[in-house]
Design goal:
single chain, about 260 residues, mainly alpha, 3-stranded parallel sheet, 11 helices, globular
Length: about 260
Amino acid sequence: MVRPRIPRFHCSTPAETLPLALHTDLRPWLPFYGESRIIAPNLAKLAASGVLFNNSYVNIAVCSPTRNSFMTGRNPDHTRVWNFKGSFRSNGIDGSGKPGSLWKTLPQVFTEAGWITAGCGKTFHPGSPPNWDAEYSWSRVPGTSELLYPYEDPDEQIAAQGTLLTPSQASGNLDAATGDCCAPNTLPELLRSLPSHSSCQKEHPDMKVVDSTVCNAVAENTTDYLTANIAIQRLQNLSALHRPWFLAVGFHKVARFELEMC
């Protein structure tokens, strides 16, 4: 595999930046792929000014193996992660026989080149590798083992505290289409009072579309909303450093049809 050369940072080097966003189940439900019902102006600007791929392929259609591949540049035949067990660090071995414990991840390459690196949300799959690969991948406070920017994943943190419920644990019409988490008692209560839009329901009789007030209330209780807020804070902090930086952000369920319809 040919690896791109990452420019090593020197004081005279203009600061470069690289944000990376990973999305679970995004699919081509976006306006620049022909889905006019979705409103995504910022992504549309990015698509118009950058390179838009019209063909995409997966080496395996499962979350954890895919993220192991995203973050290492190696396919599941080398990461040896085909399900939710293990990670490239414990299972991997590449074509030359090098074990995954010695591989360099995408953020690790930038870290070792002198860039500031940080991550939040679902970049690596939770627990694969353990602790978001903090031992190797992300920038540390010089001379310590402490991460310069603590890795935060709202879904893992809040679910561990028992303060979130998944929609499948709640009742309502969003259950089947969303996979994110909402505050207990909030989502069911909101869902019981959802208004319907007749014009939308004529086209989608099995789908309940809600007004913007309810949509915002539901959205603000999702872990993806919290992840986005963390990412914004990280962007603000990193941009003030005048150093090259790499920020990886992982979202759990971006294609939430009901919320996007609002």
